[in-house]
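Input/output pair, single chain:
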Amino acid sequence: MSCDSIKLCWVDGELLPSERAVVRADDSAFREGRGCLTTLRVAAGRPRFADRHIERLQNGAKALRLGEVAEVTIRRALAELGEAALPDGEGVIRLQISRDANGATHVIGTARGLGSDPSEWSAIIVALAHDGASLADGMKVTSRLTLSLAAEDARAAGVDEAVLLDANEHLIEGANSNLFVASREGALWTPPIATGAVAGIARSLVLERISEIVERDIAKPELLAAEELIAVNAVRGARPITRLNDRRVGKGRPGSWSARLSEVLATDE
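Output:
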């Protein structure tokens, strides 16, 4: 999917051209991959699920010992970057928190257009094994080598998402989404966060709002036999994956669980 990048960024309260150097050489995200981030959708000029994104950033900064970031600072970044970079009120904002060697905390925001947004996705199971559980413990962090390489494999294959399994061939997540598997008997499953997936905001919302979903390990044969495979994230909502490894998933069209997850994620809190 196209990134449709916008050449403007927000750095510690200042709007700057994105071509300009904006981080120090001793920045923790640059040197160590120690930074936290969140990516959110701006729709009709309003950041969706803003309270949850703010909480994610503040909790991540605390866990990674990056320092405290005030809610007002994050809201200011969203408002100023959204107004300057997304004048039509539609697009995507990415906010990142890191610190320098002197202990100063930094907030950096970038924006992009929505790019391509197909209603149905195709995907591949990548050969790259997921790292599994880590110290990140569900946080969305800047150290994303495995996910980035998987996403690159998906782009090279001309599909929308990369599906990652661990070394034991159990489903973990997508490169850009959490995944839900509907069985032929009508159950809906998703892998537990403890197996190594990012604790996505859309995933949390779906689990809160649909009590029937079961968190469980999902082996590769169960994935391949799925009636539905659904990717969710806070930017795109729910997207049915109707082709996996160039084979039809289930009946090859969105099903009832896909429609229900889309409905649940269509409304803000």
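The longest strand covers residues 91-99. DSSP finds seven helices and 15 strands in the chain.
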